Amino acid sequence: MNDTKKLSGNAALAARDLRHVWHPCTQMHDHETIPMVPIVRGEGAWLFDADGKRYIDGISSWWVNLFGHANPRIAAALADQARTLEHVIFAGFTHEPALQLAEELVRVTPEGLNRVFYGDNGSSAIEVALKMSFHYWLNQGHGEKTRFVALTGSYHGETLGALSVSDVALYRKTYAPLLLEPILAPSPDTWDAEPGETPADVATRRLGDLRAVLERQAGEICAVIVEPLVQCAGGMRMYHPDYLAGLRTLCDEFDVHFIADEIAVGFGRTGTMFACEQAGVRPDFMCLSKGLTAGTLALSAVLTTDAVYEAFYAEYASGKAFLHSHSYTGNPLACRVALETLAIFRDEPVIENNRRLAAHLASRLAPLRDHPHVADVRQTGMIAAVELVRDKASRTPFPFEERRGMRVYLHGLTRECLLRPLGNVVYFMPPYVVTESEIDHLVDVAIEGIERAVA
Description:
Layout (H helix, E strand, L loop, with lengths): L1 H4 L3 H12 L18 E5 L2 E4 L4 E4 L2 H4 L8 H11 L13 H13 L6 E5 L2 H18 L7 E5 L8 H5 L4 H4 L10 E3 L13 H19 L3 E6 L3 E2 L5 E2 L3 H13 L2 E5 L23 E4 L11 E5 L1 H5 L21 H16 L2 H16 L8 E7 L2 E6 L15 H11 L2 E2 L6 E4 L7 H19 L1
Helix pairs in contact: 4-12, 5-12, 9-10, 13-15, 14-15
Family: Belongs to the class-III pyridoxal-phosphate-dependent aminotransferase family. BioA subfamily.
Main location: cytoplasm
Organism: Oleiagrimonas soli
């Protein structure tokens, strides 16, 4: 204890942290050799630690931050709301921020999503959508529908229901005995293209696979759940919008729901406000979180149709009410922040600026396509990824035990960059306030880190 008191800056905060705090998605033993980085403030795209060092937040702090850290406009809205109403039970009570946010979400999402159910975070939004889909069919007299179709390589969260429709072994394997078993359909991931196939061809082929699943089992299926266009935690796998259009058609044909998990890809990440727009489709359920509050507070929302809502609307004695609640449902502070986030989209040319920044990022990453240890450089809007492999021709991966991506992360910290690869996939998902020169620095540092990682 006395030795700890003599420490200062990063070292002091890290020592205090490691005495008590258990961090997510972390083998805590790593921090015997890997530095814990205490952040004391943020400004724009930058984070600052207790020693005065700074880091470009190249991953938007787990994909949540849109308009920079400590955004003055969002902070002012939060402070104003905190002086008025911080929270109230959302059963039997309501308030202006939740009403306004619901109205605004209905306005900006695909037409027909007229009902808004609030949750706390992305995983809870998925839980809501799964339960609501199942309960809808139950209320309609189809209690035999109890299963869900997910894509191979998908990730939808880490609560048990959300994990049940995920297919990333790192997260799922340990808890498999506790989980529902999804029906897996092959992902339309362009990485799996056969020789001569275009991304649209892959989408068409995989729609055929999904059709076969539905022909066999539609009678027991509640919904198909997908991450539109980008399977993020599965390695930033990307696919063609045609798959979403075909999925909508198949769900209508076989009478199953379409759940769009736009938690990571919504709010401008893919080049449009929502990824589903690029296919011109409306899902039956759209799950939103992360960027909904621009990374300021935890909040999620599930949007659905009047038809779904009406299946639950009945006399109390019918037992058809939707039974799902969280203490902080519809929190006024979070709703007010979300409203300010959407106001920034209205007031500023966010999507247009993102397209310019995405084009610059693409041009800077293009030379990596020729790198002997890069099998793929892929991008959808403000999400870009570089796949590192041991052998380019065969796409043989580096063994996971070698942790090549960790070497990129550690190099980034020495060069003012927060890059946190997914295994051997180095990805970029910066806040929308990032500048072209900051993108240049991120890419330069990533290239340096890749050279060290593959050496």
